[in-house]
Design a protein that fits this description.
CATH class: Alpha Beta
Shape: globular
Radius of gyration: 16 Å
CATH topology: Bit1
Structural class: alpha+beta
InterPro entries: DUF2000, Pep_tRNA_hydro_II_dom_sf
Number of strands: 7
Helix content: 25-40%
Pfam families: DUF2000
Number of domains: 1
Protein name: DUF2000 family protein
Length: about 140
């Protein structure tokens, strides 16, 4: 199945494995919670057990250095793509309100990005992520 939209998550390549997984999970949650109609129907196995619904389309995860993350953020916002950020300071907080506060405290060009999620029409999103390698 082909989709008109795309979900891309970009994670800083020098993070510890647990940090990469944490960042990816939080950013995927941002897309799920912030974009209408990206979640499919609930699942059920052959025994009748119910499971939560998931994205209805693939999520591509990329790796990039800090400078590239900043460029992708700026380009995505400039193209009007839905964007979520995860900053280094968010590793030091313990809850959602504190996360929002540490992001709000820093001007956009000075954010210490460790990851971001981008959602939008396929062509502009592909141009925004052009040249990035999928995470190994």
């Amino acid at each position: 199945m082909r989709f008109d939209t795309k979900i891309g998550i970009v994670v800083r390549d020098d993070l510890a494995v647990w940090q990469k997984l944490n960042v990816t999970a939080f950013l995927a949650g941002a897309v799920a919670g912030g974009v209408a109609d990206v979640i499919g129907e609930p699942y059920e196995d052959g025994s009748g057990n119910a499971y939560l619904p998931m994205f209805r389309q693939p999520v591509l995860v990329y790796a990039a250095d800090a400078g590239t993350l900043g460029r992708v953020r700026s380009t995505a916002l400039g193209r009007g793509l839905e964007t979520a950020v995860f900053t280094e300071d968010m590793f030091k907080t313990g809850h959602d309100a504190a996360n929002r506060a540490v992001v709000r405290a820093v001007p956009a060009d000075e954010l210490s990005l460790v990851g971001l999620a981008v959602y939008g029409p396929k062509n502009p999103l592909d141009k925004t992520l052009k040249g990035l390698a999928l995470h190994p």
